[in-house]
Amino acid sequence: MESQEKKSRRPWVVGVSGASGTPYAASVLRGLLAAGESVDLVVSRASRLTLLDETGISFRDAHWREDLAAWLARGADGKPDTFDVADSLDDVRYWAAGDLAAGPSSGSYPAKGMLVVPASTAAVAGVALGLSKDLLQRVASVTLKERRPLVVAVRETPLNGQTLKHMVTLDEAGAVVLPASPAFYAGATHIQDLVDFVAGRVLDAAGVPHELYRRWEGDLGGGSRSD
């Protein structure tokens, strides 16, 4: 029975690059797990520095499960233990960024697709140019060549011409380029609401159901309601 479950497992690969915006990644991960999705996680070397800076959490290969639990439990406002994630990490698999022989590095690995969130301009360039300098870029390239969904949540401003060209290249290759741009019509009253809106749009692009934000229903004034 266990071997059959392993054979049928088809995870979403979540790649976290070094751009600011680790709360976006945490919200996407919580959303995937809440939807009952399997997750393969790749945390780039640069993103560890960002995560340490934004949350105070040191993400360690040997203790990734404990560090991931602390990260996902943390609210976007920095408060620890905001979310209960203790029992939701059973179907998460972690791959080190330098492991180019990892499962998702091959097109034969049965992944549903990949979500890069947040995506730095360096990650955008690397994927657009097919550099595959680390596992995150390699998996993104594999996702494109296998014609699987790839969502790239770009977190940078302003954008220069070269990055815009790279984003067009990704779009033409079949990726969804999704700038991390919060909207306010959903009635945000807290920083977590703005983070969850972006995360929700990432999950929308991947076709994963969620309840992270209130959807537009055509009623003006919805963003000012407190319900």
TrEMBL record:
Which keywords accompany this UniProt record?
Flavoprotein, FMN, Prenyltransferase, Transferase
Residue ranges annotated as coiled coil are: none
* E.C. no: 2.5.1.129
Is Flavoprotein set as a keyword in this record? Answer: yes
Which positions does UniProt annotate for dimethylallyl phosphate binding? Answer: 185, 201
Question: Which Pfam families does this UniProt record tie to the protein?
Answer: Flavoprotein
Keyword Flavoprotein applies: yes
Q: If you read the UniProt record, what top EC class would you report for this enzyme, in one word?
A: transferase
Q: What does the entry list as the binding residues for FMN?
A: 18-20, 44, 155
Q: Which residues form the Flavoprotein domain?
A: 12-205
Task: Write down the chemical reaction(s) this protein catalyses.
Answer: dimethylallyl phosphate + FMNH2 = prenylated FMNH2 + phosphate
Q: Which superkingdom, per the lineage?
A: Bacteria
Q: What family is it from?
A: Belongs to the UbiX/PAD1 family.
**Record's NCBIfam families?**
ubiX_pad
Q: Which HAMAP family does this entry report, sorted A to Z?
A: ubiX_pad
**What functional role does this protein have?**
Flavin prenyltransferase that catalyzes the synthesis of the prenylated FMN cofactor (prenyl-FMN) for 4-hydroxy-3-polyprenylbenzoic acid decarboxylase UbiD. The prenyltransferase is metal-independent and links a dimethylallyl moiety from dimethylallyl monophosphate (DMAP) to the flavin N5 and C6 atoms of FMN.
Q: What is this protein called?
A: Flavin prenyltransferase UbiX
**Its gene?**
ubiX
